[in-house]
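Input.
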Amino acid sequence: MGTDEEIKISTLGMNCPKPLIETRKALNKMQPNQILVVEGDHRVSLVEIPQAIKDTGQELLSVDDQGTKWVIKIKKVK
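Output.
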């Protein structure tokens, strides 16, 4: 498994707290230095996920708000 491998999950159509739960589940299965790409459309999760990521010590790479959906990239640190 390459360290620069991206793992993508979609939380489109899911409401709080499901996108955050799915993000945490995916991160738990990943190796350090892998990138998680989460897409979704629940507006509250667009704020909630980046805050939770900072609290867990993972690296928030980007938050791309595309209007009808968003994409968040996270680097697994530990």
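The CA atoms of residues 41 and 68 lie 6 Å apart.
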